[in-house]
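User: What would this chain look like folded?
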Amino acid sequence: MNWSKRVRWIMLTVVVVLFIGFSIYRYQVVNKPYKDYTVIEKTIKQDEPMEINGVEMTFGMPQLIEYDEQYAYEIPLTVVNNQSEFIKLEYDDFKIIFNDFSLNGLAYEEINNHPENHKEYFAFNGVAPQEEGHSQLVFNLMKDWEVNEKTDVDLYYVTFSDNIVTKYKYPLNKP
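Assistant: Here's the prediction, encoded as structure tokens.
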């Protein structure tokens, strides 16, 4: 079968157009549930309570501790449950961002072994209605990640509800 160059170009053009059309269709189908997706970022200050669905959270003064191979941020957290239901915090809702795009979560082992977190009002065990819970959040930053005590670090608490992501930003080392 010997096809001319013109027929080959026509076939190639048809295949490319079909591929692009199918790709646009798939993009629309996959992203339709997220067409009203919104991201809101709110900056909070130290000791300034933030109200989230009947739960009040307050971040205290962050403390930077230097170790041989890492830095650790310890941030006191106070949680007041104004709801009528028991609430439990999720470890994955707390993140830090540093060096513009680097992300790290809570240091689980350090949180679970921190002396302040062994008290009965430990917030990650849950907070009963009309009660107050406390916790020491701990984040590790390895020195080989090109961080130092002057690196800009922001703590984020992220919530998702009705296609709206709300990011509560708490700058850790800025006045």
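The chain has a mean pLDDT of 84. If you want, I can go into more detail on any region.
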